[in-house]
Amino acid sequence: MSLGESLTAGISIVAACSVMLIAPVVMVADKNDSMTQSSIQTETTNFTNNILTTGVITQENYDNLILTLSSHEIACDVEITVEKQDINPKKKESGDENIGDGATTIYYSTQIVENLPFRLNEGDKVSVKVKSTSETIFSQLTGADSKIIAEEAGMCTYSGTN
Prior knowledge:
Layout: H1 3-54, E1 56-57, H2 59-70, E2 76-86, H3 89-94, E3 103-107, H4 109-114, E4 118-119, E5 125-132, H5 137-142, E6 149-155
Antiparallel strand pairs: 1-4, 2-3, 2-5, 5-6
Helix pairs in contact: 1-2
């Protein structure tokens, strides 16, 4: 066996070992991302459904969402948007049943979190979006831009009590 053949054989062995070691790590990292994505989507859906059926965003529910997201060991941003409907704003001022068009007031995450518990009325629209701000192991290994994102939205079916 010549030096050239030995060098080629050595490179082939190193390459084969690298593939045998790296490929399973990448597959496990991809599977972990998929499981994390599914879990975060489930938590986002549960949080949103709770808001839509109770008509209130509580400090406890918000804190539970944040704690659950942090348990996945990735940094996430949570964006909450509420579109509050005031069907007839002039009616309140004048007492007349037929005055004024509907008005919509939009509240964003910081306004909502600063005013917890945040009460909604039936017909208000809620949107919750969770986006990872850190790279996952899979994206670090592959260079892929895999951000974990979960979104859920709906219309409130119950007015929160005072």
